[in-house]
Amino acid sequence: MKRLVVLGGGESGVGTAILGKKKGYTVFVSDFGKIKDNYKEVLIQNDIPWEEEQHTESLILNADVVMKSPGIPDKAPIVKKLIAKEIPVISEIEFTAPFTNAMTIGITGSNGKTTTTMLVYHLLQSAGLNVGLGGNIGKSFAWQVAENDFDIYVLELSSFQLDGIINYKPHIAILTNISPDHLDRYEYKYENYIASKFRITRNQTESDYLIYDSDDEATTEWLTTNKTKATLIPFSLTQDFEQGAFIKNNNMEVRINHEEFIMETEYIALEGKHNMKNAMAATSVAKIMQIRNATIRESLSNFQGVEHRLEKVLKIQNVQYINDSKATNVNATFFALDSMNVPTVWIVGGVDKGNDYNELMSLVREKVKAIICLGVDNKKIIDVFGNVVDIMIEVTNMNDAVKMAQRLTEKGDAVLLSPACASFDLFENYEDRGQQFKQAVHNL
User: Fold this and answer.
1) Any binding-site annotation on 112?
2) Any known ligand binding at 214?
3) Is the same domain home to 111 and 225?
4) Is 115 part of any known ligand binding site?
5) Is 248 assigned a ligand-binding role in the annotation?
6) 27, 40, 51, 174 - which has most CB atoms within 10 Å?
7) Rounded Cα distance, 351 and 378, in Å
8) Is 26 among the annotated ligand-binding positions?
9) The domain spanning residue 217 has which CATH number?
10) How do residues 229-259 score in pLDDT, each as one tens digit?
């Protein structure tokens, strides 16, 4: 029997362990941190041996294959030892793909991937297709392949998941955009991060599709100097195409395989320029899949959006509170500030991933009346914007941030939580940060 070792006992790790056992591997799960109780129970029920708060080398370095959870960096000592022994270290996606005949649609990008993934899933589900949702979102891909029988999987793929790919290819790939993010995992080299995103298309053939933002500099530059065999489907706010998606005269037009879809942008539920791009990307998938225009139109007009992504929480005394906790990088916050059309109190800060805040300068000058820094170390934010806004305040918890924001607003203003940073200094994750924001707003 082949030995599968799973590093990381979270959603992707436990899912992979279940699939591995079902397919006849001997399985061992090892987590350097603590494993959550609900995952422990699943491992115990399935008779899968596990350890936590350690990596026992004698039980790991004898593996035939290792599935590494996306959160574990390549420079972790145990990973270096595995690579030195030439034991394959792959991602959950790579491990799982050979065990299913389902078509997969893979979606990656620095921003917009969750919204686009959810919208693609919504479009396909509304069309009555037998479709699963996985990857970086919801139930792990491996777990679903072990327990369900979907014809299609819509997968949100992070660069970390793509790093562990050898043979996997999606039939349809979407690359929403590329902006500097997670550079701490890529030796602070932007080109390494860009290359990582493009792994999504490395194994694609002529019968596959790559949908991409042709307004995005890093993307178009890569495509001029590198080759993919996939059929290219561009989308843009400024250009139009024989084959692709674009905005013209307040209409979204999508032309694919000699078929056309047109819809007035005002009837699309998602708001903001970046969401028009997400809608174009998702509609391109629907057209490739030959979904009826009427179904696409209805799905685009009733889509609810994603929690923690420009989510309108409440209006109190005519001040709109907006939760954009999912904005963990500068580019995401750029979109958020760009979509604000009233004076805004901006709550920002957290764990900086090598951010360049200067990109936000013109938007902050134009739209932001006060900044509330919510982080352990706010020096960089204060240095950049200290002379740009009149009011800058530092707080260390969400309740103080929201109460302070309320004091600084007048009727007609907005309060925007869009941190541009990771959340791990004060919160468990961006969801926890967003939930605390919503709770604090409801407590006002």
Assistant:
1) yes
2) no
3) yes
4) yes
5) no
6) 174
7) 9
8) no
9) 3.40.1190.10
10) 999 999 999 999 999 999 999 999 999 999 9
